[in-house]
Specification:
285 residues; alpha/beta; eight-stranded mixed β-sheet; 10 helices; 36% helix
Length: 285
C-alpha cells in the first residue's frame, strides 16, 4: 500500500480542487490519501463525492499552533468535524487569517511592494487564506522567484519584515480538542528548520505525555539526519512515525506520494480514531 497522509487543496493553500486532489492521488498510484487543509474541513464534501475506485480518503486538517513563540502545525486525522469545541477553535483560527493577511499586505505596501488585497483574494479563490497566497502574489509581481523564496526574514518568515501573527492554538489544547473529537494527533514536520525556529525535543516529550499520537518524520523539509533523529525520538517516546508529501499542487515541487506512511502505522491510526472512518472510493461523482 502507498499511503500519503498530508495533502492540501484549494480549500486552503493547495492548487488542486478537492476533487482533483483525489483523482490525482489515484493517478499517482496511491492507495490512501489524506485531505488536511489548514484549519478547515470545507473540502470534505467535494473530495468524498469524487473518490475513485481503488483509493481511500482519510479526512483531516492541519491545525495552526504556537508554543513559546514558535509556530507549529498539528495534523488531526479522522475527527468528528461537527464536534463543537474543535469546530469553534478551527473557526477562531480561520477567522483570524483574513485580518492577518490584510496586515501582511499593508506591511508589504509600506516596504514599497504594490501587492493588493484584491490580488491575494483572487489567488486564495475562497480558500482558507494564508501566507502561501501572499507569497504567490509576490511571485506574480516578480519580487521573488518562487513561493519558498518569500518565506525568509526579508519577507514572510516568522519575524520577517512583513510577518503578522495570527491566533494559533496551544498544542496541548489542540491535542485535547482533537482527542475530544475522536481524532488522532500527529505533529507535522517538527524539524523543518528552514521554516523558522523548531520546537525542542523536551516539548515534544511533554506533548507525548499529553496524548500526542505521532510525529511526521519523512517529509521534504527534513534532511536525512533530521529523519534519523526524529525516528529515534519517536521510538523513545512511543510515538507513531508517519511520512507524507505535504502536497500543495503546483505551489510546491513535491509530488503526491513522494513520502509515504507505513501501512501498519496507518492501521493503528484507524484503530485509534473514533470520530470518523476512512472513505473508500466508489467511482467518484
Amino acid at each position: 500500500m502507498r499511503i500519503d497522509l498530508h495533502c492540501h487543496s484549494t480549500a486552503s493553500d493547495g492548487t488542486d480542487t478537492p476533487a482533483e486532489l483525489v483523482r490525482n492521488a489515484a493517478a499517482a498510484g496511491l492507495d490512501v490519501v489524506a485531505l488536511t487543509d489548514h484549519d478547515t474541513t470545507r473540502g470534505y464534501a467535494e473530495a468524498i463525492a469524487a473518490v475513485p475506485d481503488g483509493l481511500t480518503l482519510v479526512t483531516g486538517a492541519e491545525l495552526s499552533c504556537r508554543i513559546d513563540g514558535i509556530s507549529m502545525h498539528m495534523l488531526a486525522y479522522l475527527f468528528d468535524p461537527e464536534e463543537p469545541a474543535l469546530l469553534a477553535e478551527r473557526e477562531l483560527v480561520r477567522d483570524d487569517r483574513v485580518p492577518r493577511a490584510q496586515g501582511m499586505v499593508a506591511k508589504l505596501n509600506a516596504l514599497g511592494v504594490p501587492v493588493t488585497w484584491e490580488q491575494v483574494e483572487r489567488i486564495a479563490a475562497g480558500g482558507s487564506v494564508g501566507r502561501p497566497h501572499v507569497a504567490t502574489a509576490l511571485v506574480e509581481l516578480g519580487v521573488v522567484p518562487t513561493v519558498s523564496d518569500a518565506f525568509t526574514e526579508e519577507w514572510l518568515a516568522d519575524g520577517g519584515r512583513a510577518f503578522v501573527e495570527k491566533h494559533e492554538t496551544d498544542p496541548f489544547e489542540a491535542i485535547r480538542l482533537i482527542k475530544g473529537a475522536g481524532g488522532v494527533a500527529v505533529f507535522a514536520h517538527p524539524a523543518a528548520a528552514k521554516r523558522g525556529r523548531t520546537v525542542p525535543e523536551s516539548a515534544i516529550a511533554e506533548m507525548a505525555a499529553a496524548g500526542l499520537d505521532g510525529i511526521e518524520v519523512d517529509h521534504m523539509d527534513h534532511d536525512l539526519d533530521a529523519r534519523e533523529r526524529l525516528r529515534d525520538l519517536a521510538k523513545e517516546l512511543g510515538l507513531l512515525i508517519t511520512g507524507s508529501s505535504d502536497y500543495h499542487g503546483s505551489r510546491k515541487t513535491v509530488s503526491l506520494g513522494d513520502y509515504t506512511t507505513d501501512p501498519e502505522v496507518y492501521g493503528e491510526i484507524i484503530r485509534r480514531a473514533t470520530g470518523a472512518f476512512p472513505v473508500p472510493g466508489t467511482g467518484g461523482a
